[in-house]
Amino acid sequence: MDRREQIERIIIGTLLSSDSQFNYYNDVKCSITSDMFRDNRNRRLFEMITEMNQQGIVDTNPYNIYMKYGEAVTDLLYYMCENAMEWCYFHRKVEYNERQWLIYQSYGIRPKYTNVTFEDYINRFITLVFENEQQQRQKAY
Description:
Elements: H1 3-15, H2 25-28, H3 40-54, H4 62-69, H5 77-87, H6 89-107, H7 118-140
Helix pairs in contact: 1-3, 1-5, 1-7
């Protein structure tokens, strides 16, 4: 899995963790479109999350997506749950910082906590998409 695919999953995983308190869709709605996703599952999920937000449904966790789309998303259930639990930006950041703290506690090595934001991932994703498109155009010539 290359870095772009990882960041795709982080973005989708984070959107799958949105609720009324933290609606991460607001961070991406003006800068990311579904055609930017390589993985068809991510593209489909992004389209559903976009549609739900346009209808005022901000709780876009796997359960609510299933309740809205039913059997049309049964092929995505495991993938949605995995992304929401393993790839959500917030969970990954906490997990990373917790590992740094454990290393400090175990070995006395000064921790290098991350202060990367969700917006940093969004910006990196957009950069990677445009770099990839540039490379594709150069190959065509």
